[in-house]
């Protein structure tokens, strides 16, 4: 099984960015843990702060991978382009969020991406990524 994790804007700052919301662990630490726990799964990682680059990555992996885990950050609430890219590919996508977006500002309560995704996981901290992997393994 081959899974692509795609993180959007500001997620390169995990571990230092607002630790009260996003935790104090870097994504590199989390990725190492996930790869160790799921050694039977090829887990690739990509992060970019640019909307177009995320669209390009979805198109690149969206026909060959078994799953995509996407934390589009703020683009979740603004990007029709990323939503369209998800609907254009064959690979199923799980939308993830570290924080509970429904417990935050009202503008975060709407996702343009969710209707095109296999599911949405939010509010479980970085464990949201593990839960997304489990969703692909248990399908």
UniProtKB/TrEMBL annotation:
The active site is at residues 22, 97. SUPFAM superfamilies: Type II 3-dehydroquinate dehydratase. Keywords: Amino-acid biosynthesis, Aromatic amino acid biosynthesis, Lyase. The keyword Transcription does not apply. Pfam families: DHquinase_II (PF01220). GO terms for biological process: amino acid biosynthetic process; aromatic amino acid family biosynthetic process; chorismate biosynthetic process; quinate catabolic process. Pathway: Metabolic intermediate biosynthesis; chorismate biosynthesis; chorismate from D-erythrose 4-phosphate and phosphoenolpyruvate: step 3/7. This is 3-dehydroquinate dehydratase. The gene is aroQ.
